[in-house]
Amino acid sequence: MLPLALTASAVLLLGSASLYTLSLQKRLRIHSSQHREQGADQLRSAAQAFAAAARGPEACFLRWPSIEWASAAQDCSGSDPSRLSGGVVGEMAWSLLDWQPFTESGQLKVQLADGRTGSFRLSLDSLVPSILGISEVQLQGRGLHLEAE
After folding, report:
1. Exposure of 80 by Cβ count < 10 A (0-12 exposed, 13-18 middle, 19+ buried)?
2. Per-residue pLDDT tens for 46-67?
3. For a Cys-Cys bond, which of 18, 22, 50, 119 suits 138, CB 3.0-4.6 Å?
4. Burial of 140 (0-12, 13-18, 19+ CB in 10 A)
5. What pTM was computed for the model?
6. Is a pLDDT exceeding 70 seen at residue 145?
7. 94 lies in which domain range?
8. How many domains, the chain?
């Protein structure tokens, strides 16, 4: 009778451990998903901040890749390319990693202060330099951490 009781106890113990492990895995997946969504939301906010900064005189820079903005500043009177290079959304600093314009769109790459990076396709007006829309974020993981200003 004792071996049967020990076997039954072992089966119940293993079953409980399996249920606990499944529960723990589910909680970790939910936490990971929430963390990923929070990061995606912060990156979307950074892209929207870039789009807001690219109104007015700074919209002129949308015609050139970000690497050429310093030399393009003379063609964009009254504008400052540093206004497009970073900022703060919520309590998270962001920085522009790259801007590449195309005919009716552009590729924006931004990084948060914690190292998370994302890429966006921005729809551009083909007649005047302005942003018409922002795509969903393409998460790119973590890069080097930026110093918060």
Report:
1. middle
2. 999 999 999 989 999 999 999 9
3. 119
4. middle
5. 0.75
6. no
7. 2-142
8. 1
